[in-house]
Design brief:
64% helix, two-stranded antiparallel sheet, single chain, elongated, five-stranded parallel beta sheet, mainly alpha
Length: 684
Amino acid sequence: GRAAELEALTAALDAHRIVSVVGPGGAGKTRLVQELIDRGGLTPVVVDLAPVEDESDVLARAAGALGIQGSTEDLDSALVDVVGGRAVTLVLHSCEHVLGAARALAERFLGAGPDVAVLATSRVRLGLPGEKVVRLAGLGPEEQVELFRDRASLLRDDFVVTAEVEALVRSIGRQLDGLPLALELAAGREAVFGLAQLDAQLAVALDVVEPATAGGPGRKSVTSAVEWSYGLLSPGARDLFDQLSVAPGGVTLEALDHLFPEGAGPAAAALGELVEASLVDVDLGADPPRYRALEVVRRVGLEHLSPAQRADARGRLRAWMTAHVGRTENLRMSRSALSTVLFRRELANLAAALAVESAAEREGLGPLAAEASTLVYDDPQVEILERLRVLAPAPGSGPLDEDQALCSLAAGVAAWIGGETEAAEDLLAAALAVLPPGHPRRWSATFAAMPNAMFTGDVGAVEAMARELLDDPTVPDFAAAVGVGCAALMRLYTGDVDGAQAWIDDQADLLDRGSATDGFVAFTYGEMAAAPDPDAAVEWYARSARLSDAMGTTYTREIARIGRAAVLVRQGSIGEAAPACRDVIRATARIGMWPQVWTTLRITCELLVAVGEHELALVVLAAAEHDPKASTVMGPEIERLAGLRAEIDDALPAAVRSAAEARGRTATRGELVEEVVAVLAGLA
């Protein structure tokens, strides 16, 4: 690897007399420069400063590298005399711990003559006029695999990179930021632990790749490499470094107001020092710029914090996330597309803020969890849903206070999206029992309980909740419009077309306002048109998907795509229907929207039967009947599935039917999804 970096370094040396290769410990700065030397790219004199402990010894070290023997009272002049008039490149290796003396030495060399150049390796740039910096980051994914394979095969002849092995190596590489030193150490442990266990252990701690003894800048240890840089920081930069370790997603400047301890000094200056020390990476292409500690660096920072300090740092992270999510939610309520950008930008940090490491950390988490739930039911994100799910109050824990009710609301949203209908009903009902009318979060619980009741076919409950949303003046227009759409759809799905139309006609003005900004209204119109005017329905679904994509409302986009897939299947358009079904099955399964996965799989069974895949269709239908995460079949769909089942029964012998139904009762969701997707891929 490093072909691009080698080219950049060569170009830099051609154009500049002072070049610094800068990067974190273990990035391969020394190896890159050595490769350049080995290829004959320069005439070097190497001054290795790594062993030097005191800045006063730097000149003597340089003198030794240049062959100056004996004592001299004027090393400055001696150095200049030796290099003056020569075309030579002085390579100053490992400058960060003696930065001032290394800077002065570089200036002396550059002043010795126009043909003298300086190439430095350091975790911090020298800071000289005209200095060209070549920053070294981790290896790319393919280079990570190549390096790991090379080093692992030295210890085990039968190490072969299969697709499964490559996936695990890439996961290990991500956890180690692609740092060559860390990857080499990990490869050395593969013969001991195996890839899967090594990957799992790295998710917990770095110990698995650390040598038994380590210390100092020259030792081969990830932790010691980081600690070496850490020891050179100012106290304020150390404090900020430790605080940033609880923010796995990186930070913006705005976050420093929350994360930087009071009295620790100027936050911006401390952040600048961390960037200069190659402990924090900056992405200036992001808007706003983003500052992130490498994962291996962040892990070391976490180890610096005592339990009390860690709790304090996590409290600061939650304060930041509470402010961020509150601002994002306000934008979401006004249907601003910016809300999705902000929400997704901080997913890793929000997940960390919602994580509960002790019982005490659950206290006071309700408001943040409830705010996050209003964002996630528009845009399901698996990691956030998992964090919310575990906040469910323990059964039998007694009456809930307000904070626990908000946690119950958040856990209920996660259960609803994942198709855990009974759990969602209980959790949301518990929240509604505590949050009185007029409470700013009551409508959120109602808004989530309503589609959950749709999964069970409870028309009365859905209509009652839709009316509650309509009667509450604090409810945003879009939410009230969604409530009307849900009530209308429940009537439609049970076969009451006139009742569905009555809901729509009664709230036409509200729906018109909602249709401009929210895709659910367009989806409702598409469902109403699906039977009488399929072409119009497809146009409505397309409009819904466009609005949802613009807003980032993933949930609505996927149900609109399901509606379109159903129309295409029933029109007999196999070439369009197969990829439509395949894509939505993959997307909803990835998010964990299992009621929607099963809805799409049932629709796909009609396509499977049409192309002769009767047995697989029966397996899917049998599995849906036994999975509690599959939504209830209602109204005309009951007849449709009954007719499909009769067609399958006519096509298959009794023994084949019996085996297919048995497999449907035992097959996992993931297995069925993969099997159906594979068949659909062959039809596309």
